[in-house]
């Protein structure tokens, strides 16, 4: 350890600077999109971090190490031979089209001639750093690597990740280096996405305590599904050694993350007493991140890291995962390395308090895990969770959006805004109560005509053929009545693919009536609250919104005008709510594309396309079970709609 002496009130005080390793290699910047297209996971991510550390004079105080290629036998500790070979043979000699084909069969992956080399360097560098920290040559370190790793599964690349860098390093220490005496590893994953790959790799392994805090939103946030939920606690000997903190909304910030630290992670880490900590350090929960929609500040990251330094004698290996706002990730990284160097006194406290939903999640996690970790057993005090909430609400889209918000701009906004949180909270709960009192007919004309599929939107879940589970409505009561009706609108199929059904068109109705056409619809009597939740799910929006997409005034307007385009869905696939009339004095609503999008279908600017097989099957089942059609008639109806030009 290097010791700096500073002068303080005439007395000489010793300040210990810890030995911090950094790994950065420009070669990892060569992994890029094959066609030069923009992508959030871009080469500049690691460049800006490295430049920031240099400019701040911080890298100069660290031990800078060269990168190193992972060995196949180490990769195979967590990956299959086939997967390692696949990545290995993405060599420069192969033609782009072959790589593009491989990439297109994977979820959120691009590949070029340098991807293989970068992936080997990313994994190898984390292994190297972990080894040096474990053996005491370094106190801690940061591997500034890409591609990231935590989504990579044993046998599959996904979510911008090729090899699971952190998992390879953990497995290397445990299985290949008994001499280093690492028997227990805590992996902390603060990337905004769930570390699905890492979770699975150590699912039954009590030597690895995996902790991931991430946006989950009932399974709708990437990587989607139930894996990231808090009841996924591990199995067999590993039961209790997997901890997920699944946020059910975006916008979480320092206060929310620190509450998860103070009331889950830190007490558990104290009980587990790790020999080393590996940190899946994605910075996409940072304020201003275009994918994350959360608001963690560099200060927040530095406190979270500082709190981890009380364990394992401060042996912490940070590995970069996600993080897509270049400015945010550079600042957050700098704040973290400064903490590793131990030259930052952290005392500033945040003004904000956690969201109510944050306490709900934390309490659920504690309850689920207290059998394994006694320190989680106590009920949190009423006083703690009912602290006044002075955090201003910023009305920005917090979804997986492509817009890049300037972090400083947001901070400025935050300090100016002073909307009382409880006003919004009240609005949020009361719109549901109000709209739950009003019934509408939801007229479905696609796969929703099959009741079990429609029920996914009410009760959550999925039916055969669907690629992704639905969240369901907040009100899970089934429809009160079902009737079938025929309307004078055109049915057609278009767009390339859908999240639910994969490649193939999905059904639309022309927004305007046309007396030459007929569309068969299944009408479900549900509440206007449920209709809102269906509308959100059809448009890939979060159902847990502060305001309804269509309120009573909107319903009135739709009845009067025949159709409305609610602001929140105006740019989505089903951007138009059409009123088809009334049945028993209850308005009949359907959702379809807007008129302007319909014009684009007509002109060919947006493609018509026959439905995906699984989608068409569901559609047919609905029509047949509705009792009006034979399977042949249903098929003919679809074929005609799919083959007749608009
Ligand atoms: C490492 C990471 C995110 C993938 C998002 C895909 N991956 N939509 O942040
Ligand atoms: Zn991420």
What does the model show?
Its cofactor is Zn(2+). Mean pLDDT is 90; it is low at 1-14 and 389-422. This protein has helices at residues 44-55, 72-75, 81-88, 96-104, 115-134, 165-176, 196-201, 254-272, 298-308, 326-340, 356-369, 382-385, 407-416, 421-435, 451-459, 528-538, 552-561, 595-603, 613-625, 631-643, and strands spanning 2-8, 11-17, 20-23, 63-65, 140-143, 185-189, 208-215, 242-247, 276-281, 316-320, 439-444, 482-487, 491-494, 497-498, 502-503, 506-509, 519-527, 563-564, 576-583, 586-592. Strands 4-3-5-10-9-6-7-8 form an 8-stranded parallel beta sheet, with helices on both faces. Strands 12-17-11-20-19-18 form a 6-stranded mixed beta sheet. With 646 residues, the chain is α/β, with parallel strands linked by helices. The chain is built from 20 helices and 20 strands. Bound molecules: N-(4-aminobutyl)acetamide (X5A) and zinc ion (ZN). The site of N-(4-aminobutyl)acetamide has 13 residues, from loops.
């Amino acid at each position: 350890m290097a010791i700096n002496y500073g002068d303080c009130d005439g007395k000489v005080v010793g300040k210990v600077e810890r030995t911090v390793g950094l790994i950065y290699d420009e070669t990892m910047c060569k992994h890029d999109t094959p066609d030069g297209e923009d992508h959030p996971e871009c080469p500049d991510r690691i460049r800006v971090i490295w430049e920031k550390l240099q400019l701040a004079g911080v890298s100069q105080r660290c031990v800078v190490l060269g990168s190193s290629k992972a060995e196949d036998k180490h990769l195979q500790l967590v990956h299959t031979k086939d997967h390692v070979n696949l990545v290995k043979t993405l060599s420069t000699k192969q033609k782009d089209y072959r790589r593009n084909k491989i990439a297109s069969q994977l979820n959120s992956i691009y590949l070029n001639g340098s991807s293989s080399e970068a992936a080997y360097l990313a994994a190898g560098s984390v292994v190297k750093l972990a080894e040096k920290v474990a053996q005491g040559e370094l106190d801690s370190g940061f591997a500034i690597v890409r591609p990231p790793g935590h989504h990579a599964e044993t046998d599959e690349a996904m979510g911008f990740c090729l090899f699971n860098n952190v998992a390879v390093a953990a497995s290397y220490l445990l299985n290949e280096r008994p001499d280093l005496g690492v028997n227990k590893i805590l992996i902390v994953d603060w990337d905004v996405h769930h570390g699905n790959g890492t979770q699975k790799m150590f699912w039954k392994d009590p030597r690895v305590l995996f902790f991931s805090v991430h946006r989950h939103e009932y399974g709708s946030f990437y990587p989607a599904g139930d894996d990231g939920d808090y009841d996924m606690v591990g199995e067999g000997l590993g039961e209790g050694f997997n901890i997920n903190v699944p946020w059910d909304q975006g916008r979480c910030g320092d206060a929310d993350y620190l509450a998860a630290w103070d009331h889950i992670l830190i007490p558990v880490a104290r009980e587990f007493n790790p020999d080393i900590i590996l940190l899946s350090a994605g910075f996409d929960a940072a304020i201003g991140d275009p994918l994350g929609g959360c608001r963690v500040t560099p200060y927040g990251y530095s406190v979270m890291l500082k709190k981890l330094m009380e364990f394992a004698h401060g042996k912490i290996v940070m590995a970069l995962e996600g993080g897509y706002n270049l400015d945010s990730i550079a600042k957050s990284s700098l704040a973290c390395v400064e903490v590793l160097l131990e030259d930052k006194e952290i005392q500033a406290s945040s003004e904000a308090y956690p969201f109510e939903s944050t306490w709900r999640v934390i309490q659920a996690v504690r309850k689920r895990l207290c059998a394994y970790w006694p320190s989680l057993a106590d009920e949190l005090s009423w006083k703690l969770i009912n602290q006044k909430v002075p955090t201003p609400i910023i009305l920005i889209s917090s979804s997986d959006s492509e817009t890049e918000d300037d972090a400083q701009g947001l901070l400025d906004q935050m300090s100016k805004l002073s909307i009382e949180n409880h006003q919004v909270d009240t609005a949020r709960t009361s719109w549901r109560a109000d709209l739950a009192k009003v019934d509408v007919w939801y007229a479905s004309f696609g796969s929703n005509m099959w009741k079990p599929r429609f029920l996914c939107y009410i009760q959550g879940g999925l039916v055969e053929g669907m690629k992704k589970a639905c969240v369901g409505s907040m009100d899970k009561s089934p429809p009160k009545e079902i009737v079938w009706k025929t309307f004078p609108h055109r049915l057609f199929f278009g767009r390339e693919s859908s999240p639910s059904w994969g490649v193939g068109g999905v059904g639309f109705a022309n927004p305007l009536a046309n007396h030459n056409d007929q569309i068969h619809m299944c009408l479900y009597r549900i509440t206007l609250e449920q209709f809102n939740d269906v509308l959100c799910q059809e448009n890939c929006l979060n159902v847990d919104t502060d305001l309804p997409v269509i309120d009573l005034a909107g319903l009135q307007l739709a009845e009067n005008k025949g159709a409305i385009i609610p602001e929140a869905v105006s740019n989505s696939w089903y951007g138009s709510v059409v009123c088809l009339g009334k049945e028993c004095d209850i308005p009949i609503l359907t959702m379809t594309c807007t008129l302007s999008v319909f014009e684009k279908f007509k002109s060919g600017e947006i493609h018509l396309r026959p439905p995906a097989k699984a989608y068409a099957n569901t559609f047919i089942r609905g029509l047949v079970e509705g009792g009006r059609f034979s399977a042949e008639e249903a098929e003919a109806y679809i074929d005609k709609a799919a083959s007749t030009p608009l």
